[in-house]
Design a protein that fits this description.
Structural class: alpha/beta
CATH architecture of the domain at 4-150: 3-Layer(aba) Sandwich
CATH class of the domain at 4-150: Alpha Beta
Largest sheet: 6 strands, mixed
CATH topology of the domain at 4-150: Rossmann fold
Strand content: 15-25%
Number of helices: 19
Helix content: 25-40%
CATH superfamily of the domain at 4-150: Toll/interleukin-1 receptor homology (TIR) domain
Number of strands: 18
């Protein structure tokens, strides 16, 4: 096998120690040295060719461009461009894999042209920060191993498909499996009957093999998933300002299977954002619209759960600020998929395919790589600023909140009528009992239908439903469309 050539690019005077360390590390490591061959000008004997000719030729011959960007821009040629930027542009022109590692310095401490180079690189490649040689070594190692895996030099079973020898069938909840079968049958025409055994369902979903259970089965149907994967929780926080400040006004750590995590996190956000309720001049039912599109919130959170790195010590974080919603996912985009490509139709490459498939069957996601595009479409259609996606140490989705003033006739928050009660009994306990009774008769009933039957405001019914869920009396199985209510307590 021909070695995979790595071109190490940087301002040589600024990164002299780091360049030498990486060269020695890659060539002497038992695994990396077997596959990779790093290139440094310092290691070459003097030659007849000019330096410019040599480095551009070596960039063309390499497989990976590894750039170290710091404070200095470097010596400029007659056109005012440094060798590092020339090398980066040449690697882009010849479609080389580019790995960028950035010193953990304040941007203001960098030379202006270096700031511009970093900004240019950020638009098309993923970068990682480091503050020491050890951190750089660790980040480079992780990136190169990932390159080997994604190019199938190394074959590794995805985390969710890995069989877990410590899990038994009794660690899974049969009722969760049955509820999934019912929902998947209704939503996507899942072929197995409701009476199918847990073993049959798991086998059909490729979650059971030779009596061994895959990690995905625990995250999907486990009685206590966090007992096995402690960071598979979602942390939700609400801040009144624009930054993370303590004490946190509202903070929740949600646990459960991936379906429960999504439902709980979405409910958290909906309970904190404005619900605009219009007038009833055209209909008995007052029109209402959340400040942020419900579907966009759900899509962002589902994406984080499906695409996250479950081997990471980090958790999915959902943070609501005065001006934006941020969803943080401890995961990385696959090589070849950039932030720019996320805004266009692209192939779907889930990091956890055995989790993604059941979530698709339950109606939580689509499989065509439309998720990020849908988030943009839903938000811009509602007149909001275009959402942003960022890839740093984590993947971040930012949905901007509404900043414009409300129209006349609309009420802020969850409507004045909700707190006062727009009809008799709405703010009293009997409303919850009536809603429960309707759910027992028709588990698929919507809040709108319940409001119409009980002659209550929609905002009030939705508030009562949220309180019933928080009390653990009911839970939602499946998405808003196609799901149903399950009564947990009488």
């Amino acid at each position: 096998m021909n070695p995979i050539r790595i071109f190490i690019s940087s301002v040589q005077s600024e990164f002299s120690a780091e360049r030498g360390m990486l060269f020695d590390y890659i060539t002497t490591d038992a695994l990396l040295g077997k596959y990779f061959e790093p290139f440094l000008f310092e290691k070459l004997p003097a030659a007849g060719r000019t330096v410019n000719e040599m480095y551009l030729s070596e960039v063309e011959n390499c497989d990976i461009y590894l750039g170290l960007f710091g404070r200095q821009y470097g010596n400029e040629d007659v056109k005012g461009i440094s060798p590092t930027e020339r090398e980066f542009d040449h690697a882009k022109k010849h479609h080389k894999t580019r790995l960028i590692f950035l010193t953990n310095h304040n941007n203001s401490s960098r030379q202006k042209k270096e700031q511009a180079l970093i900004k240019k690189a950020e638009k098309i490649v993923i970068r990682k920060k480091f503050s020491s040689e050890n951190e750089l070594k660790t980040a480079v190692y992780a990136s190169l191993i990932r390159y080997l895996e994604e190019n199938e030099y190394l074959r590794r079973t995805p985390f969710d498909a890995t069989m877990n020898n410590s899990v038994k069938l009794q660690d899974l909840d049969d009722e969760k499996v049955q509820s999934f079968v019912a929902l998947a049958g209704k939503t996507r025409g899942f072929p197995l009957p409701k009476t199918a055994s847990t073993e049959t369902v798991l086998t059909h979903l490729h979650l059971l093999q030779d009596g061994r259970i895959a990690n995905a089965a625990i995250l999907l149907f486990g009685r206590q998933p966090q007992r096995f994967f402690i960071t598979s929780e979602i942390k939700c926080a609400h801040f009144h300002g624009l930054t993370v400040t303590k004490p946190i006004p509202s903070y929740q750590v949600y646990k459960g299977d991936v379906f429960q995590l999504v439902d709980q996190a979405v409910d958290f956000v909906l309970s904190k954002i404005n619900l605009n309720v219009g007038t009833r001049d055209k209909s008995i039912q007052a029109p209402r619209k959340y400040e942020l599109p419900h579907e966009a919130i759900t899509e962002a959170i589902v994406n984080a759960v499906v695409h996250r790195d479950y081997t990471s010590n980090g958790s999915v974080q959902v943070m609501l600020f005065k001006d934006r919603l941020e969803v943080w996912n401890p995961g990385q985009l696959p090589y070849g998929l950039t932030i720019a490509k996320l805004k266009k139709p692209h192939s779907s490459i889930p990091a956890n395919p055995l989790i993604a498939e059941p979530m698709y069957l339950a109606g939580y996601i689509e499989r065509m790589g439309t998720g990020t595009g849908d988030i943009i479409r839903l938000c811009t259609k509602q007149g909001l600023k275009e959402p942003e996606f960022r890839q740093e140490e984590e993947f971040v989705t930012i949905i901007w909140r509404e900043q414009k003033r409300k129209k006349a006739g609309e009420s802020k928050g969850e409507s004045k009528g909700e707190s006062k009660g727009e009809s008799k009994g709405e703010s009293k306990g009997e409303s919850k009992g009536e809603i429960l009774a309707l759910m027992k008769k028709n588990s698929g009933i919507t809040a709108e239908e319940a409001a119409k039957i009980l002659n209550l405001s929609l905002a009030g019914v939705e508030k009562n439903i949220r309180q019933l869920r928080e009390l653990g009396v009911i839970r939602r199985v499946g998405p808003n469309k196609g799901g149903y209510w399950e009564i947990l307590e009488p």
